[in-house]
Amino acid sequence: MGELIYEGKAKQLYTTAEEGILRVAYKDDATALNGERREVFAGKGIRNNEITSLIFRYLAENGVKSHFVKQLSETEQLVREVEIIPLEVVVRNVLAGSLAKRLGRSEGEVIETPIVEFYYKDDALGDPFINDDHVLFLGAASAVEIETLKQEARKIGDVLTELFSKANITLVDFKLEFGRTKDGAILLSDEISPDTCRLWDKTTNEKLDKDVFRRNIGNLITVYDEVLTRLEEVTKHV
Ligand code: UDP
CB-side exposure of 216: number of CA atoms within 13 Å? Predict the structure, then answer.
């Protein structure tokens, strides 16, 4: 069913009979340290597909367009074909991870005005942190596109912070990817899941994301399930 055109760490992309529409299949693999550590968690693909599909549907209802067309099965989605912009757009609401390390401050400090960052998608370079001028120099995006990426990222951050908050979860930080359609429009793409977000329980600060794998501090499937159940609970009307 379709030709495999790309295989990443967590997903496969296939062509479909319909021009401009691709099928994404979510895998059970988890990687950390830029792919150096790899483990398979049975059922992870299902959770991330369900969570991403739910979030993309919720974003659409709140005026944020994405490449998402529809959920096809437990592990698959149909998406619009886009040319991926080679940038990871990270939004930070609370200090954690690489930024806490870089600034030499402890995790957990609230960032009043969310910080938007760009990382250049290049495995060989380890996805380096870059600024707007680097983006222009690399030809990764135009000046107008940079502004669109930042605006969209902040808007998505606002919508998702509120959604997760209803589920008693703090959206600490998250990573987005965007693509260009054939007519040059910019669309949110890739996935939004506990693989790509830091999620902390609002009451206990328990980590409900891939950090349980990165830091060996819990059962990945149990916490991904918890996130899915809570999101389903607060979006029952959707
Ligand atoms: N992130 C991601 N993919 C990457 C790098 C980061 O999805 O290749 C997400 C990560 O899950 C977190 C946010 O982006 O929610 C910020 O990550 P950070 O820069 O702190 O890096 P990390 O600590 O994950 O190495």
Answer: 4
User: If you write DSSP's letter for every residue of 129-196 in order, what string do you get?
Assistant: EE-HHHHHHHTSS-HHHHHHHHHHHHHHHHHHHHHHHHTTEEEEEEEEEEEE-TTS-EEEES--STTT
Query: For residue 201, is pLDDT > 90?
Result: yes
Atom of ligand 1 nearest to the CA of 209: 11
Residue nearest to atom 3 of ligand 1 (CA): 196
Whether residue 227 is predicted with pLDDT greater than 70 in this model: the reply is yes
pLDDT score recorded for residue 238: 55
The residue type found at 1 is M
> Which of 162, 144, 136, 142 shows the shortest CA–CA distance to 64?
162
Whose Cα sits closest to atom 20 in ligand 1?
A: 97
